[in-house]
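User: Predict the structure for this protein chain, please.
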Amino acid sequence: MILWHRLNESGRDDERIMDTMVEVSELFERLAERLNTKEAAKLDRIIQWQITDHDPGIWALKISGGVGELIVGGVENPDITFVTEAEVWVGIAEGRLDPMRQFMSGKLKVKGDMMFALKVPNLFPTGESGDFHDHGEIISQQDQAPVDEVERERQARIAELTDPATFRYLTGVGVSEGWRCAEVGAGTGTVAIWLADQVGESGHVDAIDIDISFLRNLEHPRMTVVEQDVTKTPLEPGRYDLIHAKTLLQHVAERDRVLREFAEALRPGGYLVIEDADIRSIQRVEPPSPLLTRAAAALETFFYFSGADPAYPMRLMPEVRKVGLEVLGTDSQVTAVQAGTDAIETVRMSLEKLAPMIVKAGLMGQVEIDKALKLLADDGETMIYTPTTIAVWARRPGA
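Assistant: Here is the predicted structure, written as structure tokens:
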């Protein structure tokens, strides 16, 4: 299919048409050769594109060991699929259309691992006219500045705020000598290390995450770091005495299936402890601040658009029951935090991390974001509530 384009003097991206013929297939044929081999060196992923008005309409790029293989016709279970029309695809590929705006308008749909989708732009070079991802697939290259240490600090602050409650829940289910545990979505490893200290010489902990960059340097004789995507590779059935996951399931599109597979991975009598955070509570601000409430609402909206479900934590207990586990207890934790203090940094850093995407989506302007960040950072009377963490602990019948 050849698309004819004409130049529209209005200059609006979604109306700009060029006088050149663009062969859609040629754009896909160039993907593999433009793959950033350094970024892709440790990946084993499949990215798929579904062009709804083109025949053939599906292409997949299989990435393994830094090498890309184009698969015309696609595959059955890709890690992520981008769905759009040919004209939108060509505009994004040539850098004429902003991908985030297309996403937020519904012209570009994303199915699968949204967190991986945000990393896709790093896999392709930019800056050359006509290159795929001149401005990124979901967000631009400049939005993906090197922030590993910033993200490590953000996760560490969240752990500092939430781990004390987590340790109480795990102690309550009786984690002890000889247990085999899985910490899924291990993050910076604080909970996995704590568990490894509890299980004694005969126990073991698998610290599992799709991204192990913050776990690589952690060492413990009773802990193994496992790079695994549980949406693609389920945990081994009947293996664990305890499975714990925190702030994970609401971000997983296949959360119902993954929860069921967690239950199946428990030995009879084994325990599941799930925690997830409802971010909607951060909209409560004292004294009232329309700006901060709007920023909090923008975060919630972006979560929904990105495939997460901020309301899922409130459904956690019945969902756990549906997979056949006996619910033993539930709890919720919310903390009031003061502007200008260390405690509020978890909220401020999360807003700062997602700010470029919130601005691109048109949910807030950059000036508003900057004012909101300053209001959180400066000493003052402003107080907000952290996300409400909902915890459920349950037991697999038997034994």
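The first helix runs from residue 24 to 29.
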